[in-house]
Amino acid sequence: MRPEIALPILIPLFFGALSLAVWRSRLAQRWLAVIGTGALLASGIWLLFATLNQGPLVTTLGDWQAPFGIVLVSDLLGAIMVLLAGLMAFSAAVYSLAAMGEGHERFGYYPLLHMLLAGVCGAFLTGDIFNLFVWFEVLLIASFALLILGGERAQMEGAIKYVTINLISSAVLLTAIGLVYGLVGSLNMADLAVKFADADAEHTGLITVIAMLFMISFGIKAAAFPLFFWLPASYHTPPVAVSALFAGLLTKVGVYALYRFFTLIFTQDAELIQTILIWGGTITMVVGVLGAAAHFEFRRILAFHSVSQIGYMILALGLMSPLAIAGGLIYTFHHSVVKTNLFFVSGVSYRLRGTHELKELGGLYRAAPWLSLLFLISALSLAGIPPLSGFFAKFVLVRGALDLQFWVVTGIALAVGLLTLFSMTKIWAEAFWKAAPENAPTPPPVEPGQPLYLMYLPIIGLAAIAVLMGIFGEAVFELAMLAAEQLEDSRIYIEAVLGENP
Amino acid sequence: MTSMPSLILSTAARVLLPLLVLFSIFLLLRGHDLPGGGFIGGLVGASGYTLYLFAFDSSAARAALRMDPRTMVGLGLVIATLSGVIGTFVRGEPFFTSQWWEVYVPIFGEMKLSSPLIFDLGVYMVVLGSVMTIVLTLAEAEE
Amino acid sequence: MEPLMAYVVGGLYAAAIYMMLRRSIVKLVIGLILLSNAANLLIFTAAGLVRGTPPLIAEGAQVPPPGVADPLPQALVLTAIVIAFGVLAFAVVLIHRAYEIVKADDLDQMKSTDT
C-alpha cells in the first residue's frame, strides 16, 4: 500500500469538497486553500523522496490488478511534475489571498482551484490512458470556470476560443483512445508499450496514425506550433492569479503527456516523430518569441513567451537523448517557476499602477525598487542569464542538441534566447525604468484585508527558487538525469506496473 | 411561479414529498446488488423537491431542503472521498478497496454495511445538491 | 454492421468539421456536439460490434461463453457521454453569456483578444 501516490489527488479533492461545503464562509475557504495547497506541496515532496529512494511506485485503485484495473504510477517524471504542481498551487493560493476580489471568491474560486489541482495531479500520476482523458476533463472544466470568473467581455471572447479548441483536443484524444482500444484491447500505458512493441508489421501505419492523433491532442494542450493560437488569445484575460497558475501548470500537463507517450508508448516510428517534434518545437520557439516582440501589453508578452518556451521543451523531447530530456525537464520546472512569478509581478504592477499597457506604465523602479529586483531575477532567468535557473536549463538542452550535431536548431535556440532578453528588457525599460507618464490611469481601489505583502511573499519565494536552482544546478541536473534515464529505459516503468515478466 | 398555486398540486406535493424522499432512500439502499443506487436515488429525491417547488415557491423548497444545496454537494463529495480511504487507514489496502462489515440488527437479522454504500451516500448528496442548485437558480432567476 | 457504422462515424466527423468552420457560434457548438458523438460512436465501433450476447456468466461457470460483447467500451462511452454532456452544457451557457455581452453570434466580432 502506497498512500503517498494517491495523496496528491485525494488532498485537493478533499479540500475542494470541504471548501465547497463551507462556501458561505469566505474566511474558511481562504484558510482551506492555503492549508490544502500546503498539504499538496508537502505530499509532493514526500512522493518525490519516496520515488527517488525506491524507484517507480505503483498503486492499484480498488485492488484491481494491472492491466485490468486503473493504476496510479509515480516515476520520477510524474513525481517531479506533482511537486511542481504543489509549488505553483501553494504560491498561487497565498497570492490569491491578496489578489482575488471578493466577487471572484464568492463565485467559487477556491473550490475550482482545488478541482483544477486534482485534475492536474491525476493526469500526472495515472497509468491508464482513458483515466488520463478523465483527469484532463476534470482540469479543463475547472479551468473553463476559472477563466470566466468575473465575466468581462475579453474573458468571454477568450473563453470561447479556449473552450472550443480544448473540446476539439479532447475529441481527438478520445478518438485516439478508441482506436487504441480497437487495435490492442488495452488502455494501461505499460501494457500498451509492450503490445505496441510487438505489434504486427501490418499495423505500423495505424499505430503511426494513432501516435499523430495523440500528438495533435497533446500539442493543442501544450500550445505547440501550429496549434497554439488559443493561448495568447485567452491567457491574459482572467484575474492574474489564474493566469499565473495556468501559465505555470496547464500547458505543462500537455508537455508531460507528450513526454510520457513518446518515451514510453510510441517508440516504433521514432524517426518521423522525432523530426516532427524537433521542427515543431523549433518553429514554436521562433513564432512565440516574435509574437512577444510585437506586443506592448505586459501579460500578452508573457503569454507569447509561454508559447516560445514550450518550444524548448518539445525540442528537448524530440532530441530524445537522456541529456536533452534532462534539459527539457529542468526547463519545464524552471519555466513554471519563472513564468508564474512574472505573472505575479504583473499583478503587483497592476495594483500599483492600474494598467497592464507598457505605454501607460512607468516609474516602477523608483516606486518599488524591490519589485524591480524580483522582476529582474525572473526575467533574466527566463532569458537564460547565468547563474540563474534558466541558464542551466538552456545549457543542458543546448549541450544535448550539440552532442547530436543539430547545429541549425542549436543556433535558433540561442537566437530565441537573445530575443527573449530583448522582450524582457522592453518590459524593464517601459514599465520600470522610464518615468511615469503624465496621463497614467489611477490604480484600482484595494479591498480591505488584502495586504500587499501577501503578494510579495510568493514572488520572493519563487525568485529564491529560481536563484537556488542556478546555485545548486548540479543537484538539479543529477535529479533530472535520473528522471531522464528512467524515461529512456521504458522497461523500468513497465516492470514496475506489470511485474518482472509481462 | 404563478400567482395562484393549484390547490390539488399543493396538497399532493405535501404528501408526495416525503414519499418520494423515502423512495429515493429505498433506491439508495438497495442499489448495491439491484437496480438503484445513489445517482438514481438522488434524482428521485430531487424530483420530489422540484415538485414541491412547483407547488409552492423556491423559498419553500429551500426551507424543505433544510440544507443549502451547495453545502450538500460539498458534504457529499467529502463523504465520497472519505469512503475511499477507510480501507487504507483501517487495513492498509489500496485506495477505494471495498470494505464490508456484517452487522446484526434486531428484527431484520444480518445486514451488510459497506464502503460502497458510504460512497453511494456521497453520490446521492452530490446529485441531489447539484440538481437542486440548478433548479433553484433557474427558479430564482425567473422570479 | 461495422462498415455501415464506419460510414456513419465518418459522416459525423465531416459534418462536425463543416459546422465548426462556420462563423456562427451556435453552429460551432452544434459542430462540437457532433464531434463528441462521432468520437463516442468510434469507440463503440472500433471495439467491435456484437449483437445479442450480453457479457453474463452463467450460474456455476467461471468464464463467460465465447463471443460475448465487450462491456468495457460501453463503460468508456458512458463516461465520455457524461463528460461531454457536462462540458457542452458549460459551452452553451458560455455562448449565451457571451452573446449577452458581445451582442453578436459571429466569431468575427470577437477579435478583441486576438493578436
From TrEMBL, chain A:
Gene source species: Alkalilimnicola ehrlichii
Q: Name one GO molecular function term.
A: NADH dehydrogenase (ubiquinone) activity
Q: What is this protein called?
A: Na+/H+ antiporter subunit D
Pfam families linked to this entry: Proton_antipo_M
Say which family it is in. Answer: Belongs to the CPA3 antiporters (TC 2.A.63) subunit D family.
Give start and end of each NADH:quinone oxidoreductase/Mrp antiporter transmembrane domain: 128-415
Q: What is its main location?
A: membrane
Q: How does it sit in the membrane?
A: Multi-pass membrane protein
Q: Which GO terms describe its cellular component?
A: plasma membrane
Keyword annotations: Cell membrane, Membrane, Transmembrane, Transmembrane helix
State where the protein is found. Cell membrane; Membrane
TrEMBL record, chain B:
Ranges where the Na+/H+ antiporter MnhB subunit-related protein domain occurs:
8-133
Ordered alphabetically, the record's keywords are: Cell membrane, Membrane, Transmembrane, Transmembrane helix
Question: A Pfam family name for this chain?
Answer: MnhB
Localization per Swiss-Prot or TrEMBL: Cell membrane
- Presence of keyword Aminoacyl-tRNA synthetase: no
Q: What is its main location?
A: membrane
Q: Where are the transmembrane segments?
A: 7-27, 39-60, 72-90, 121-139
**UniProt cross-references to NCBIfam families, sorted A to Z:** PRK12509.1 (NF009163)
Q: Which family does it belong to?
A: Belongs to the CPA3 antiporters (TC 2.A.63) subunit B family.
Q: This chain belongs to which protein, by name?
A: Na(+)/H(+) antiporter subunit B
Q: Which organism is it from?
A: Alkalilimnicola ehrlichii
UniProtKB/TrEMBL annotation, chain C:
Q: Where in the cell is it found?
A: Cell membrane
Put simply, this protein is called Cation:proton antiporter
The organism's taxonomic lineage, starting at the top: Bacteria, Pseudomonadati, Pseudomonadota, Gammaproteobacteria, Chromatiales
Cellular component annotations (GO), alphabetically ordered = plasma membrane
Give the membrane topology, semicolon-separated if more than one. Answer: Multi-pass membrane protein
Report the domain of life of the source organism.
Bacteria
InterPro entries noted in UniProt: CPA3_antiporter_subunitC (IPR050601), NUOK/Mnh_C1-like (IPR039428)
Recorded hits in PANTHER family, A to Z, give: ANTIPORTER SUBUNIT MNHC2-RELATED
Q: Could you list the residue ranges that cross the membrane? A: 6-21, 28-50, 75-95
Q: Does the keyword Cell membrane apply?
A: yes
Print the keywords alphabetically: Cell membrane, Membrane, Transmembrane, Transmembrane helix
Pfam families from the UniProt entry: Oxidored_q2
| Protein family (similarity comment) | Belongs to the CPA3 antiporters (TC 2.A.63) subunit C family.
